[in-house]
Amino acid sequence: MDARLDIFASPVAGKFLKYLNSAGKAVTDSTLPAAIQELVKIRASQINGCAFCLDMHTKDAAHAGETSLRLNLVAAWREAKVFTEAERAALELTEQGTRIADASGGVTDAAWANAAKHYDEEQLAALVTLIALINTYNRLNVITQQPAGDYQPGMFG
């Protein structure tokens, strides 16, 4: 499979990606736990069908020590016993924040209150901006049909 557009060679897309990556550093450098960040990226990418991001973030998570059991169960996190309450709150917020068009009203007050029980304001800001950011990356990759499977951890860092 070939991509519809080589976003890595395009001057416009390259500049845009540079700014996105810079914005992402604010989240990476935040106090939001790295494991939560990867779970959020994986769940949003599953919902959006972004193979490129799934390839990247599952490999990055495994490289950072995440277990295959947990990675295999992210899509079914509600029924899986391997996620903490804080992780579940982040995954719920991710799902609702990713599926805004599917639900009138967007993110529910209950989902927000549950996340706020587990994360302070700065972590919530990081969580919200991360959800927005991964959804942006997902859309770029899905629209251009970026192929997946070749990513190696650290390749873009």
Major beta sheet, specifics?
none
- Large-scale geometry: globular
Termini separation (Å)? 25 Å
Structural class: mainly alpha
Kindly state the mean pLDDT as a whole number? 94
Any low-confidence stretches, pLDDT <50, length ≥5?
Answer: none
Query: What's the total count of β strands?
Result: 0
Relative helix content = 55-70%
Estimated share of beta-strand residues: under 5%
Describe this structure in words.
The chain has 7 helices and no strands. The radius of gyration is 15 Å and the shape is globular. 64% of the residues lie in helices and 0% in strands. The two termini are 25 Å apart. With 157 residues, it is an all-alpha fold. It has helices spanning 11-28, 34-48, 51-63, 68-73, 85-98, 109-118, 121-144.
Name some characteristics of this structure.
157 residues, 7 helices, mainly alpha
Compact summary:
The protein is mainly α. Helix content is 64%, strand content 0%.
Topology of helices and strands:
Blueprint: H1 11-28, H2 34-48, H3 51-63, H4 68-73, H5 85-98, H6 109-118, H7 121-144
